[in-house]
Amino acid sequence: MNFKVFKVMDIVGARPQFIKLAPILRAIEQHNKLCVKEQICEILLHTGQHYDYLMSQVFFDELGIKAPDYHLGVGSGTHGYQTGEMLKRIEEVLLNEKPDLVIVYGDTNSTLAGALASAKLRIPVAHVEAGLRCFNKRVPEEINRILTDHVSDLLFCPTETAVKNLKLEGITEGVHFVGDVMYDAVLMYLEVAEDKSDVLSRFGLEPKGYALATIHRAENTDNLERLSAILEGLERIAEEGMKVVFPIHPRTKKQITAIGWQMKGVRVFEPVSYLDMLVLEKNAHLILTDSGGVQKEAFFFRVPCITLREQTEWIETVETGWNTLVGCDPDRIVEAATRAKPGRDSAFPYGDGKAGLKIVEIVCAFLRSAKEQQ
User: Fold this and answer.
1) pLDDT tens digits, residue range 82-97?
2) Which of 114, 189, 230, 277 is the most buried (most CB within 10 A)?
3) Are the CB atoms for 262 and 228 separated by under 8 Å?
4) Active-site residue identified among 46, 176, 216, 249
């Protein structure tokens, strides 16, 4: 029997990446059951970029993700410190494990560190959620995306727009439109969420009776003027009679505490789990966010979204009228909330919910070809 084993390492570190990872792990499991002669040996490395329970471990528990094989415990810090520590520690693991391929996800410092460490060791890199661009290089995530794409061998795009973005930068080899793994995750976990989550009753919320707010991006949290303006906008929405609920990111909580801001009329609570978040999103009247993932999930659930940024990498949500960009101006935030309405029904740009399966199939074909050429 010509038996093949491919060693693949997944590198994650932040809350959105755990969600993106889940469909890939399920697809690997399905592949290994069906392909007796060809197995994927999966190694999971967690950088520790997100580290407290509500930002990390709860996702592993809820989504049934196995415990990491390596947990680097890097924690928080400046971009340079965090990325540098990850590079150093990831390299040590790569030298020990010698994987055939490394998969990185999204646009965090963990993404960039994993891609750079692998590329410098001449280990092929696959980037899940490749080709996204907001065209603002002041945004740290934009730098991470661009650099990761330019060192990747396989680029898995969630939209056709992402494919076009890469082509404009001269990247055409190894590019695949597969759809969005976060859509896979919603299809996988929504029924479980609705069955298990009691988040609405726990917080006394009625379906379509509240606005859901999230703020976490460095461009907003590290700029206290922007952060204060956004908080003012949320308070003014609440003053006008709309209930606003705000599960607060640890970074945002730290900054709000530092400036001594007292939230008025807005219900603030600790971060919620993925299953709770799905239920909150689906049942919201309106969502206000700076999160890329939450913008998409609002679109999946057909909930009007207001994005607290000047640009978005998920341009399809804007083009179809489901998402409005307002930046941090309180007047624009309030006006958009007042005028929020459903967008247009249109072609669905994020695939068919089978992105994970397609990614694993392409990865196997790539590694099969590489083995044959050795």
Assistant:
1) 999 999 999 999 999 9
2) 114
3) no
4) 216
